[in-house]
Amino acid sequence: GAVVSQHPSWVICKSGTSVKIECRSLDFQATTMFWYRQFPKQSLMLMATSNEGSKATYEQGVEKDKFLINHASLTLSTLTVTSAHPEDSSFYICRAVTPGGQATDTQYFGPGTRLTVL
Amino acid sequence: AQRVTQPEKLLSVFKGAPVELKCNYSYSGSPELFWYVQYSRQRLQLLLRHISRESIKGFTADLNKGETSFHLKKPFAQEEDSAMYYCAPDASGGSYIPTFGRGTSLIVHP
């Protein structure tokens, strides 16, 4: 079946540095990719929606200058956490959707990236 | 305000017992309704959606518009059903943006 990968799977960085997380759809073209963050024992919170070739749409309360999203191709989206701080430590998950993406075989989640900011 | 409620953080049953994971939603209009599942050490995946009227791995979900509920049910739980289950209404009108509930952890004991 279709697979979505994320890289890195975990990262530890110092406060003030920037971290880039990649989300790739390996064998299908994802017209839309979503980025979520998940705190321990909590649900997924949508951060932003990105469509290939256009600017991402951010959810209310998400700083677009802090969480830079680029969706340069139909198989790659990146999330860059700029000037990371300890409160940005979280589990970041991407979700890729193909056209008509409400069926079980048209949307896929990445395995997630654990970010720890010291 | 739009809201999805999964009242149980944890549901513990024995193998072979019936299981019902509750989900209530509060939305204007008629959202599409989904259940997602995350097994241990695996990524999140879509389990089933209301519009398909499907049964996946023995699970079904019935929409009750009067009660605004979309409970997930299985008549005989199996150990491999142990996982985190998220109810997720989607009121985005075709933008594929469900809102995830906080999740219910189902543990099926042997």
Overview of the structural elements:
- The complex is a heterodimer of chains A (118) and B (110).
- By secondary structure, chain A is mostly beta strands.
- Chain A has strands at residues 4-7, 10-13, 19-25, 32-38, 44-51, 57-58, 67-73, 76-81, 90-97, 107-109, 113-117.
- In chain A, β7 (67-73) and β8 form a beta hairpin.
- Chain A is globular and about 40 Å long.
- The mean pLDDT of chain A is 90.
- By secondary structure, chain B is mostly beta strands.
- Chain B has no helices and 10 strands.
- Chain B has strands at residues 3-5, 10-14, 19-21, 24-26, 32-38, 45-49, 60-64, 69-74, 83-90, 104-109.
- Chain B has a 5-stranded mixed beta sheet, with no helix packed on it.
- Chain A binds chain B through residues 4, 32, 34, 42-46, 49, 93, 95, 97, 101-104, 107-112, and chain B through 32, 34, 43-49, 51-52, 56, 86, 90, 95-97, 99-103.
